[in-house]
Specification:
Length: 974
């Protein structure tokens, strides 16, 4: 089938011959011009003078000497007018410019529709005191329109409306004056809105007679569908004046059927007298049956992933060195552009795949926009508190455009992590120099916000250019962003000087974000050859043999909602303003027009339901399948999901592994209680941590983690009892109570000690002095204040237990010790050093007690010692193993066998006490003696397994034994 524009080209040549250069050809958008030029060239087969091509807005802009006001000019002008109206009403409390911005966009949208559709603003916004006046003042309305109007005003009868309705009516009453003052002030300043220009052209009041030279039907409007009333009025007049002709892309299939919404506006155009220069009798949809494939895909981006499978024919053409001339991928959902670009390969068998994207690449999809967005976030943070969240600082340091070298990034991050600053002072970052200076310097006022960002971008652009790493496309993004910001700065400058401090910095930053989010940069490509990628709007007037439509879901085509407006639906219907059905009709026309001349059609939709997607195909698909007679084929494509196969990772004890393990056997390395329980719970974790030395990445704790709570609690208890012990090791209840006043300071020092980091070489007193200095600079955030209270409560629980247990004698605090432990491997005697740091050792009634503090969910109950060492079992009690470990170490050091393990589990000790218990009773006295021997026997068996070089490291068969392992991704367990 011939493309629509080819038929137009042939008809134009038949009508104008070689005189086409005197004509003006007007489209809805720019894209069709290149196609029409190609068809004209193919038809002429010789050099010719091209006609002038315009978009309708470009053409209408010729009708005035005034400048078309941009969005910012319109907004500030509207604000000026609104404030003047409020002042004239005697209102003192005026809305800030930031608060007005949200409703301004709605008001401006309504004003544009009023002008585009030639609505009398005075009548629309007239205050109606009684419903009966509708019949008197609005006798021009049809009965149906009067009914709509009556429905609206019924809810505003005197005495019935609430506060919100009263505010709405007040706003409604201001609208006529605001509307007229807004346009008047724009005109006085040399501006006009595009919609107001449409209205003046429709009324014949434009100040430039821009159509005078086009007598003889030389105005050629191509491919228009939904006309505003202003456009329609102007078009009819120009046709009557023999200036204009029209080419409508129609199909009898939907044009003559009144139930087909796709033909709604075309029928209106023809009824008002506009003449289509092409036949309205053709029916491309009914001409032949076509095959339509409907693909149901699970997932949003998964739609793009199947494109490679659908482009088999195009790939064969490329491999055979044949051009791809008529294939288009239409993005009904334009958010699929990036996934699609990532899916289509640039080459096949070393042959280039030509792709043209008419939509352009949105700046908001680029890393540059990410950097700008980061700067905006930083400025908002700085204006509020003069500090930066550590995640923000980390995002900046990690961003590719900051230019921070791979060598410097980890150093800067390590420094911030060491300081554990959840909130980083901006001065701390500026000290780094370079790009940190312009990026983290606080914007001093709203007036310099835009210019400050321009300076940042220029700084980075110059550095990137100097490095000669900047690609042409990235340079275009920088240029477009700086150009848009410069335009915004020029617009803002006058108004910022006028309003001064009344313009909030946050508002200006939001304007920057909005201005850049709409910027797009064209991508290289040939609009006439190769695979064309475009949105549904860009496809107007164009025809392709092969159509692939992505994102064809209900709610997207057609859209499920209209723009926000102050004009309710009933009034919109009464005055003939656009309503949801009009939007549906426009979408229907674009859909049917797109497929009416296509031979191969593929529809793809996302079947997954979420908050933004219905999971249903567009109703246009169902409608076409029901009515057209096309051969529909429904396919459900489920992309194979490949997960890493669970594997049993086995680490053989190679020579390198044995070399590390021999350090334990030779006494160069000590085996700690935590290392032992790690091996018992999951041997492969022991390998990664203690043999391979793979540590968990350090990071700043935004919320205080459980292990940090434990560290701080241990610090508080050690220092609490250290002061008492230095005075006298005999601890009594009165002494504990008297010393409790020091706990808040100890908790603060505990936080500081945790932030200070580890430094084993620093003398204890020197470290304490540094910790106290650091504590003075700490300001707790909300979450940290909660943690302080939790730790304070934990300390109270421990001290309550100790008070009940007084008097007792403190023997040692955080006491370190190591002992030799003998065992046998394959008949050979071996020995390791067992090392422990015991939280507390005290003496009560002749019994030495090992006290271990726990803030987690440890248990005092256990089944038997052997079960606690069973790697593949489900009854491991790590706390028991650790405490008996410390007990054995202390007994060997002190040469005292009368040592009892106690566990202070702060969450449960009030109810459950502090002694371990099994089915055979409390772990005390004679039972404790037998369990100590069982512990030593089980320990020897586990060490025999650990140091048998023929037994590899592998994961426990019970995943519950390592639920929080950081090494899961390494040993393949999910």
């Amino acid at each position: 089938m011939n493309p629509f524009l080819k038929e137009v080209a042939e008809d134009l040549i038949a009508k104008f011959g070689d005189n086409l250069q005197d004509c003006a050809i007007i489209f809805n958008n720019k894209r069709p011009a290149a196609y029409l030029q190609k068809h004209l060239a193919d038809s002429y087969q010789k050099p010719f003078w091209s006609p002038s091509f315009f978009t309708v807005q470009e053409f209408f802009a010729e009708a005035t000497h005034l400048k078309i006001a941009d969005n910012y000019t319109q907004f500030f002008t509207l604000y000026d007018c609104y404030i003047e109206i409020l002042k004239s009403e005697g209102i003192i409390k005026l809305p800030s410019i930031a608060k007005f911005h949200a409703i301004a966009r709605i008001i401006l949208g309504d004003f544009n529709q009023i002008d585009n559709d030639l609505v009398d603003a005075n009548k629309l916004f007239t205050e109606l005191e009684d419903i009966a006046t509708i019949n008197q003042q609005f006798d021009f309305l049809t009965p149906e329109q009067k009914e709509f109007l009556s429905q609206f005003w019924q809810s505003y009868a005197d005495g019935k409306y609430k506060k919100q309705q009263a505010l709405f009516i007040k706003m409604w009453q201001r609208m006529p004056m605001l509307y007229h003052q807004f346009h008047q002030q724009l005109k006085e300043n040399g501006f006009i809105t595009m919609s107001r220009l449409y209205k003046t052209i429709a009324d014949g009041r434009n100040d430039v007679d821009f159509t005078a030279k086009y007598a003889g039907r030389k105005l050629i409007f191509i491919g228009f569908n939904a006309l505003s009333k202003a456009e329609a009025k102007a078009f009819v007049r120009w046709q009557e004046e023999n200036k204009a002709i029209f080419y409508f892309d129609t199909d009898r299939y939907y044009l003559e059927d009144e139930t087909q919404e796709a033909g709604l506006f075309l029928r209106r155009n023809l009824r008002m007298g506009l003449i289509n220069q092409l036949s309205n009798q053709q029916s491309f949809i009914s001409a032949s049956k076509r095959n339509v494939n409907v693909y149901k895909v699970q997932g949003q981006t998964a739609q793009a992933k199947i494109i490679n499978e659908l482009l088999i024919t195009e790939k064969e053409l490329i491999l055979n060195d044949q051009p791809v001339e008529s294939t288009a991928i239409i993005l009904a959902d334009e958010s699929l552009l990036i996934p699609l670009m990532q899916t289509i390969p640039s080459t096949i068998a070393n042959k280039k795949i030509d792709v043209n994207i008419s939509m352009g690449f949105g700046l908001s999809n680029s890393s540059l926009y990410g950097l700008v967005d980061l700067w905006l976030s930083i400025q908002l943070e700085l204006s509020a508190k003069k500090t930066i969240q550590h995640q923000t600082a980390e995002a900046f340091i990690s961003h590719p455009l900051t230019g921070i070298s791979e060598l410097m990034r980890p150093k800067i991050m390590d420094a911030l992590i060491k300081e554990q600053l959840v909130e980083v002072p901006f001065e701390r970052l500026i000290k780094q120099g370079g790009v940190f200076v312009p990026f983290f310097t606080m914007v001093s006022s709203s007036a310099v916000a835009v210019s400050s960002l321009i300076e940042v971008l220029q700084y980075i652009l110059q550095r990137e250019l100097a490095s000669k790493k900047l690609k042409r496309f990235d340079a275009d993004l920088f240029g477009k962003a700086i150009q848009e910001l410069t335009r915004l700065q020029d617009t803002l400058q006058h108004h910022i000087e006028k309003y001064g401090k009344e313009i909030e910095l946050g508002f200006v930053l939001s304007l920057i974000q909005k201005s850049l989010s709409s910027v797009a940069v064209p991508l290289a490509g040939d609009p006439l050859n190769g695979i064309q990628i475009m949105g549904l709007l860009e496809s107007r007037n164009l025809n392709f043999d092969r159509i692939i439509v992505l994102g064809l879901n209900e709610g997207i085509v057609p859209q499920a909602s209209t723009g926000t407006t102050f004009i309710p639906d009933s009034l919109r219907r009464a005055y003939g303003l656009p309503v949801l059905e009009n939007q549906d009709a426009i979408s229907a026309y674009m859909f049917y027009r797109l497929i009416q001349r296509a031979n191969n059609i593929d529809f793809i939709y996302n079947s997954l339901t979420d908050e933004s997607n219905s999971g249903e195909p567009s109703r246009f698909i169902k409608q076409l399948a029901y009515e057209s007679g096309f051969n529909f084929s429904y396919k459900e494509l489920q992309l194979p999901i490949k997960t890493e196969v669970k594997r049993e990772e086995i680490i053989v004890k190679s020579e390198k592994v044995q070399a590390v393990m021999n350090k334990y056997l030779s006494g160069k390395k000590y085996l700690s209680a935590s290392a032992l329980t790690t091996y018992i719970s999951n041997p492969i974790d022991f390998f990664y941590k203690y043999i391979a030395g793979i540590e968990e990445p350090k990071e700043v704790e935004e919320t205080v983690e459980a292990k940090t709570v434990g560290s701080i609690l241990h610090y508080v208890m050690e220092n609490f009892y250290e002061v008492l012990k230095n005075e006298s090791p005999e601890i009594t209840a009165p002494r504990i109570r008297a010393h409790k006043t020091n706990i808040p300071n100890l908790i603060l020092y505990g936080f500081a000690d945790n932030l200070y980091g580890k430094n084993d070489d620093e003398p204890k007193n020197e470290r304490l002095n540094n910790v106290k200095k650091l504590a003075k600079s700490i300001t707790f955030n909300g979450m940290q204040k909660v943690v302080v209270e939790i730790i304070n409560a934990y300390v109270d629980i421990i001290l309550e237990q100790d008070i009940e247990n007084t008097p007792f004698t403190i023997i040692g605090l955080e006491q370190k010790g190591n002992i030799s432990f003998d065992f046998e491997v394959n008949g050979v005697a071996q020995q390791v050093k067992l090392f422990g740091i015991i939280d507390r050792v005290d003496l009560k009634n002749g019994v030495y007690r090992i006290v271990d503090y726990k803030t987690g969910s440890d248990k005092l109950k256990y089944s038997c010692i052997e079960d606690c060492f069973d790697t593949n079992g489900c009854k491991i009690n790590k706390a028991l193993v650790q405490t008996l470990f410390y007990t054995h170490v202390y007994e060997q050091i002190s040469k005292n066998e009368n040592v009892e393990p106690n566990l202070y589990i702060v969450k449960t000790m009030r109810k459950e006490g502090v002694n371990f218990t099994s089915k055979n009773g409390l772990l005390k006295d004679e039972f404790l003696v037998t369990e100590k021997q069982a512990f030593q026997n089980a320990l020897r068996e586990k060490l025999k397994e650990l140091f048998d070089f023929n037994i590899p490291f592998k994961a426990s068969e019970n995943p519950a034994n390592y639920p929080y392992s950081i090494y899961k991704t390494l040993f393949g367990k999910s």
